[in-house]
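REQUEST FORM: STRUCTURE PREDICTION
Request ID: SP-0412
Submitted by: Lab K.M.
Chain count: 1
Length (residues): 153
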Amino acid sequence: MNKVTPFLMFNDQLEAAIAFYTATFPDSEVRNVARTGKDGPISSAEFVVGGQRFMGYNGGPYFSFSEGVSLYVDCADQNEVDEYWDKLVKAGAKPTQCGWIKDPFGLSWQIVPRRFTALIGDSDPTKVKAVIEAMMTMVKLDVAELERAYNEA
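STATUS: Completed
RESULT:
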């Protein structure tokens, strides 16, 4: 068991969220669920998404997610960015800015290509600034455009 595990409070959408997350990301599974009554809705669960363990609870309307906490998805390349972005949008997620997207349950995700992380790790501050400025104009991150900004700086 992890020493620290994210605990997510849903507004009675836990079962749908778990189904979507585990179908969307590899290395995902449902480990344990507790139901309200024998055949009632899931009240709490332990599940894994992309190898990360989570606990979830149907807490009702008392709690909501904010952008203060988001889930970062490490994408190998543009194809993987596109794959996850498209799955999230198809499920009803709302794109925001800079590679962020809010899923239908209110949770924010950052869909980030590894190349972006490499580019902003460069020792040349001019190149890093150009990449950051390019990223700030994007909704979904575009590796080719980020590299263009880097190369032109």
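NOTES: The longest strand covers residues 42-49.
Reviewed by: T.R.
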